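Section 3.1: Structural characterization of target chains.
Under the original work plan, the team committed to producing a structural model for every single-chain target entering the pipeline before any wet-lab resources were allocated. The record below documents one such target. The sequence was received from the expression subgroup and is listed exactly as submitted; it comprises 298 residues.
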Amino acid sequence: MTGALKSLSDALAGTVEALGPGVVRVEARRRMPASGVVWSSDGLVVTAHHAVEFEEGISLGLADGRTVNADLVGRDPTTDLALLRAEGSLEAPKWRGPEDLRVGHLVLALARPGRTVQATLGIVSALAEAWQSPGGGQVDRFLQTDVVMAPGFSGGPLVGAGGEVHGVNTSGLLRGLSMALPTPTVERVAAGLAAHGRIRRGYLGIGAQSVQLPAGLEAQLGQSAGQLLLSVEPGGPADSAGFILGDVLVAFEGTPIQRMDDLVALLTGDRVGQTATVRLVRGGTVQERSIIVGERPR
């Protein structure tokens, strides 16, 4: 047993040492620095949005002791991710999706809030399918761990037993929980931020609330609720498409809409400027209308 524990201990220490160069200190707020992970060797670094308070004057602490300047490329509050670009090239770790992770697997959380790399050990405590954050961000996998998120650990990597980075740790997404944003989410958000400086999101220009459908419509449509339009922004996409107060939105591009979250999840950035088919109920009659999806104001 002693030999097995020593082997495990040595393996964990070796993993921390190997990945250390890819973990940076992020100095972008007044209080304790946070951590970041090198996304690509050309200087891109991902970190936690909530740990970046400054738009300018950001610096990164590297494993070799150097401090380099960095620019804020963009941020996405809905997934609590921010993208930075450092001066010069950096050493990127190997990233991997969460598909091989199972509940109970050992994981390491790495951080560099100070001069040296820090680590804490835990397990994957919960896994589930894609979900929507409280801010409306689309996260490709629910990935919760029991690692202790000490100050400065947000923005650091979640590392699996194979020595690969499976995501970015954050304590700012769900209160009281240690969450990791899985690699596919990091990849999608980083690409969007690198291209546009922000994450583009679709927008219809409506205010709505859930409403129960009459029994006849429920049977006809195969759903029990829809979204009753309480406001239509003048000149907005819905107004231009002829939507009016009192319409009940029941489907978007063939997907039933019963809650506002259902619609938000479908209004992804790639739909901006595209024509979509919307099904609504007006005066008890089901209609279909075309709408050009706008871009949510910043």
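The mean pLDDT is 94.
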